[in-house]
Prior knowledge:
Lactation elevated protein 1-like, ATP hydrolysis activity
Amino acid sequence: MRRIFSMSSLLNKGSIQRRVSKKYLINAIRPYSEDLSSPKSPGPLLQYRKLVEQGRLQHDPYQERVALALENLLGRLEQYEKEMEDYHIKLAEWEKNRETERRKLLMEEAELNHRGDLWTSVNKRKSELLERWSFRRKSEDIEPGVGKWVSYLNREKKLDSLVGRRPTAPPAPKGLYIYGNVGSGKTMLMDMFYSATEGIVKHRQRFHFHEAMLKINEAMHKLWKNQVEEKSIQSSISSWIMNLSFDMKAKEWLAAEERYKQEVQMKNILPAVADKFLVDRQAGERGASILCFDEIQAIDVFAIVALSGIVSRLLSTGTVLVSTSNRAPKDLNQDGMQREIFLKFVNKLEKHCEIILVGSEIDYRRQIAQRSVYKVHYFWPLDGTALKEFEKMWCQVINQAEGEVTSNTVPVMFGRTLEVPQSCNGVARFTFDYLCGRPVGAADYIAVAKSHHTVFISDIPVMSMRIRDKARRFITLIDELYNHHCCLFCSAATSIDDLFQGTEEGTLFDLESFQFETETEGAKLRRDVLAEGSVSLGGAPAGITSMLSGQEEMFAFRRAVSRLIEMQTPLYLEGVRSLHPYFQRKHQSFKNCSYSASTVHHQVSH
């Protein structure tokens, strides 16, 4: 059976007429018609009940329970923000005093070494033979680095007695770990909470799994690069050591102690990455931190090690975590990879988060397809009529974009770029093979999704084992387009329901599940993080590879189908202009211009 659909005007005045029948109720989708960027967004429970009253959501006791828990958490955040502001003021003062005292101790030790060198030079001729013998014995008896390590520990103990121990952070409210089936409303509820925290908590981030892993990878690379090039070390030396009135030998000793301190701090890189993951404290910002983490997964060894190190550090330092997943924490690691590290991670989650199941077995996104009147942007099969309608839609959207279609490049993580063959004012067009048939991955898809509010993808084939790698990339692509709230148009060989049911060389049940594609240097970073953390590859045959079960694969396929369905509904489409980064940047630019103009007017008038 052939289906051809079109859409009215996506870009004209930024709205689409909603034609959802009131007698049909929708639960899986986010409240797209609400302006989630508003600093005075209502709480998640109020948002949820309002949408139920309007008939846009069907009441679901599981969803309401989660909304209530999120509302209670929101109510505790305002006081926690104040407590964390006070804590960071005390912490900054403590760090400043500790650094001042540490430098004093170093200078006292350098002075003693300096005097010792002068005395040695006076008696050099008398004791040259003894000195050489003593130096030889010292080198033989003392293991390299032990002396510096002992000096470092002794100095830290002295600092504890002089300045006191690090201030204790106030107890953080328990976050939430929300899990359940595909389409049960987990992301919708988390996004309601995230929007409501605007104006309450300064440091707030929302990441999907792919983007979070890539950011961790990138941050690790930067830290290691700085360590190798010693840029930060040299700058810290030149700022105070080189101006001291010591001879060069004493300055070199001070520089070596500073270098050793930074090397010690770099031994465990994941906490260092975590400290920069949400906010740069050196920017002067104080207050609480919130991390909303969508689709938390444990797909391979790197994910387990990285998540354990990063999330555990964030939770230990007071960050409030709200996350979603298809599985309960203890069920994330189906293959038993790095069990000891994983169990510590689970224990940390259960200690700092309330674990809540959204227990509905209904995929509400699929109910949209069955019960509402909507316009579809998915054209199939790949015959003359469907392709003609697809081209017609491309021309219509380009005319509305009011620009010239050209090729351009977008920046990608790790210093790479991706060429966009056809682009026009936030609208882009690709073939399936261009995006999924080459060695590209989540970093490229994130770059495309952030830069383009509307994406056309043509010639999508039926997925089977013959093109399993392409299928995996396609699932990741859909995740990122959905996560960034892009408008998507597709031309495909078959319907959405049959897209992953190809039989050529076998069905996709044995397909290696999706995971974010690593860059060349990213693959090296995966090995290095295991080596730095003294983590073996036991339980991970063939190195660091995805080892997910067939059940995990089915989660991935079901989620992709569910999201493709939702991305064609009016309720999703009407949120593109308010939620997509392209329009948010334009809105922020307009606000900045308005603020500048009003400031100039105020100055001139006075």
